[in-house]
């Protein structure tokens, strides 16, 4: 940007419409441009001319190949495309995300499901693919290193306890004995009931702090022939296990959680190491072994568990931890335990920014295959050295299994407009007359610095001038108009110099606290991109501001170290009430933890959720489940309010105050109130949205799997299947 110098010198060189003219001492207000457009630069976005923009440019700009491969890409229409089978996806199997969103959110009258946004789209095929990929990575590592036992993983349900996610995992994993891990009593209850449909050999690993009730429940699970292991987290749990297993006459299968010396120093590793929150120390492990021996129960000790934290940054650290644990495993065998399984916990990381870096908390420098190879190699080498039979390897990967399958889609409803600097009509001369001598001196110095092209000095004087004027305002010697004029002048200076922040605030129909709690809580970044219009050059930059009345409810940090996101201009004013085109954004890789951690700040509940399968019908996808998000009444109940009573109170009030001759009035007030209780708390972006709730918001639309399977066989049935889903 030629910046201020150009602007200052431009009095002669440039036509007045393209620059403001400054005579160096007193600029005349008329010479300031009416619009600041010519001062706005966007060099940071890209230098590609608008007509040369292609979806490929967007893919590079948003690093989609880095974090999205092999599941997400940008298609030739400029929309995000989902590849349900990862690298094995055929071209005709790709799913256009915007079509899914349209199907889910279109009013029922036009064939949609009438769901309100925000929306979580679960791609079950992606979930399946993640599970299969993890299993094959271990199978391959085991085969290629001639390891003497198999891998059988468990899914830690705390990452996402959604019924359909857990049920899918049990179903998809039953062919290879995939199990579940629970860390609390309700998690154990759900794991028990889900595993009734799983493989009989699947493990049910019970972690977390336990009381007698938790332990009895786990022992009951063994009676139900679920392959349950009670992992001792604290030494005191052992006495309870011994007593209750005698009472219930069940042989317990016991595991130990070891506190390793190996320490993962990242954010998620703060619980690892000798001072970590979890697990038994070496001394405690020895005492547990001794006590089991005294009770003749040492043969019940079968599993060794550890967890050095989530997002393990490198395979070097991983291998270090696994070697330490393997040595403990071998020692336990030497002490007489009938060890069978080594459970390496979670920690398999996700590359949220696609940078493949080992020293970032949001990236990892290894693949699934590298991870599995390192684990198998470490266990094998230690066991071979000790002459110990290779154990079954179990892992508790949560993040790595569920992150990819879920996409959060939300709408940007408005954007703060670009405010071009304005100088008021009453004239600069009048303003200058009101300045104190000091302020006037600042103004002169500012002008002189501009002529000398000393831009930093300009900024210093502009800031000083502003401060003095604010002071004058506080003292009452300055009006609002003058203060606004000074703001305009300072803004003009920074724009001309090119230091002003051109980014806009996009208001999104979302709660960060509910849907991206880790951004607020621990500053975790997720890839966020527009899911359509990617064939257009994004001409703006913006931060995202959510609906909550909380200053933390904004997203102003993005992957790649960016403090704003390249975005497209909203069409048709983009205002809530306008009829402009909609602008949809997607947050990716948020399938783990975000749904489970989200709260109801400002009483915004969770999003609507749909489950999508690839289908060979004309739409290439089918929505097999749809659950509207919690209504206002639902979130009110969370805080012990009683929507029914509230409604009655308000209805009586409406009747009381209705005009005598206006019974219709009070009835329509009441029906308006009903709608408000039944709708989701989020903004209704079009009249159609309200149809959702008016039609009942209290169930989910369900298309059962068998019906889906048979319908999918015949293309002709596709439409019937839709209507079934919607029914
Ligand atoms: C949270 C947790 C996991 C899951 O960790 P990820 O890094 O998400 O795979 C596994 N095991 C235990 C004990 C956990 O607490």
Automatic annotation (TrEMBL):
It holds the Pfam family Orn_Arg_deC_N. Residues 146-403 form the Orn/DAP/Arg decarboxylase 2 N-terminal domain. Gene3D superfamilies: 1.20.58.930, Alanine racemase (3.20.20.10), Lyase, Ornithine Decarboxylase, Chain A, domain 1 (2.40.37.10). It comes from the Eukaryota. Pathway: Amine and polyamine biosynthesis; agmatine biosynthesis; agmatine from L-arginine: step 1/1. Its EC number is 4.1.1.19. It is an enzyme of class 4 (lyase). The keyword Cytoplasm does not apply. One of its GO terms (molecular function) is arginine decarboxylase activity. GO terms for biological process: response to cold; spermidine biosynthetic process. The modification N6-(pyridoxal phosphate)lysine is found at residue 158. Belongs to the Orn/Lys/Arg decarboxylase class-II family. SpeA subfamily. This is Arginine decarboxylase. It comes from Forsythia ovata.
